[in-house]
Amino acid sequence: MEEGKTFPLSHVEEVGNRGAQSSFRTKLKTHLRKWWWLHLVFFVASTLIGVLCLIYVAFPKISQDGVNDSGLEIQSLTLSNPSPNSFHLEQDALLTNHNKYHPRLDAFNASLSVAGSEDKPYAYIELPAVHATETATTHIDQDVQIADMDAFIDYNTQLLTKESVEMVVKGRTKLHGMRFPVTTVDYNKKLRMKGLNGLSGFNVTSFSIKLIPEPDGANMIGTIYIPNPSVLTITMGNVTFNNYVEDDFIGTTTLFDLVLKPGNNTLPMRSTVNQTLVLQKVSGTYKDGMLPVDIVGNSSVYNGQHLEYFEKALQSNRQHVVLNVGAALAAVSGEGMN
After folding, report:
1. Is 236 exposed, middle or buried (0-12, 13-18, 19+ CB in 10 A)?
2. Residue 5's pLDDT is what?
3. Contact criterion met (CB below 8 Å) for 112 and 171
4. Is residue 58 pLDDT above 60, yes or no?
5. 0.90 cut: is pTM over it?
6. What HEC string does the chain produce?
7. How confident is the model at residue 109 (pLDDT cuts 50, 70, 90)?
8. Quick one: which of 9, 56, 70, 105 is 20 to 30 A from 129 by CA?
C-alpha cells in the first residue's frame, strides 16, 4: 500500500467481508472432510426416524381413521331355525369406503349390542374378510348362540315396537394395506336398522264365525294383515295372541308357522273365542255390531319350544282392531236359513 494513500471505509469493509467468507468456507470444507460421516449418520437416522414414524405412528392412525369413517348398512337379515338359546343368521351387508385407500380386513369375531348397552352384547358373530373398496358386500350364514338373554329380549322388543333401532357392531381385526406392515384396528360401528314400528297397520282383513268349532277348537277363521317395513325375515313358529274387549278376555288367535317377511304379509288366522261373551257385548254396549278388540301377544313356539325373546317382545306390544261381528253373525244366520 502506498504511503499516505487512503481508501474509502466501504471498500475496507467489503475486503474484510470477503476475507471472512473465505475463512468460513475453508473452515466448513475442513469440517466436512473431517466429520462427513457424522453428518451422514445424522441424515440416515433422521430419515429412518421419519419412516418409522410414518409406519408405526401415522399409518396405524390413518388406518383407524379410515375404518372409523367407513359405513355399514344391513341390506337383508334372515333369522331362522330359532331355539330357546340360539338362532340361524343369514345377513347381507354393504360396506362403504370413501377413502382412496382400499385395505383388506381379516375375518374377526364381533359383538352385537343395542346402542347404549355395548357392555351387554346379545350375541357374537364371525364377520368375513373383506377388501374395503369403495363399495363391498359381506355375507354371513352361521348359527349364533345368544350371549345375554335379557339383552336379546331388549333388542327384539325395540325391533318390534320402534320405527328404527340403533345397534353396535364391535370387534378388533388386522388391516393389510399397500406395502406397510399389518396393523391392528378397532371396528366399532353404529348402524340404524328399520324396525317393525309396533306392527303399525296390523288388521284383521276378513273373518267368519263357526257356530260348530272345528277339530282344533277354532270357531273363528280369517286372515290377518301385518306390514313389515324392515329388511328382516323372522321365523317365529306358532304365534298366539290374547284378545280382549274392554279388558275382558274373549279368546285367543293363532298364526301357525309364522314367517314374517319384508313388505306386506297376509296370513291365515285361527281363533278360539268365547262366543257367549261376544254375543253379550254385541247385544249390550255394541249394538251396531262393531266390536273393538285389543290384541296382545302371548306365546311363540317353534319345534315345541317356547321362544322367550319373542314372547316378551310380543307381550309388550298391543294392537287395536274393530271387528264387524254383526255382519259375521248375519252371514252365519243366512247360512243357517239356507
Report:
1. buried
2. 52
3. no
4. no
5. no
6. CCCCCCCCHHHHHHHHHHHHHHHHHHHHHHHHHHHHHHHHHHHHHHHHHHHHHHHHHHHHHHHHHHHHHCEEEEEEEEEEEEECCEEEEEEEEEEECCCCCCCEECCEEEEEEECCCCCCCCEEEEECCEECCCEEEEEEEEEEEECCHHHHHHHHHHHHHCCEEEEEEEEEEEEECCCCCCEEEEEEEEEEEECCHHHCCCEEEEEEECCCCCCCCCCEEEEEEEEECCCEEEEEEEEEEEEEECCEEEEEEEEEEEEECCEEEEEEEEEEECHHHHHHHHHCCCCCCEEEEEEEEEEEEECCEECHHHHHHHHCCEEEEEEEHHHHHHHHHHHHHC
7. very high
8. 56
Name the maximum alpha-carbon separation found in the chain: 154
How large a percentage of the chain has pLDDT more than 70? 80
Residues 7, 13, 16, 20: what is their CA dihedral angle, to the nearest 10 degrees?
-170
77: pLDDT strictly greater than 70: yes
- pLDDT tens-place string over residues 141-150: 999 999 999 9
Question: Which is more confident, 11 or 312?
Answer: 312
| Amino acid symbol at 278 | V
301 pLDDT higher than 60: yes
Beta pairing, strands 232-245 & 71-83: parallel
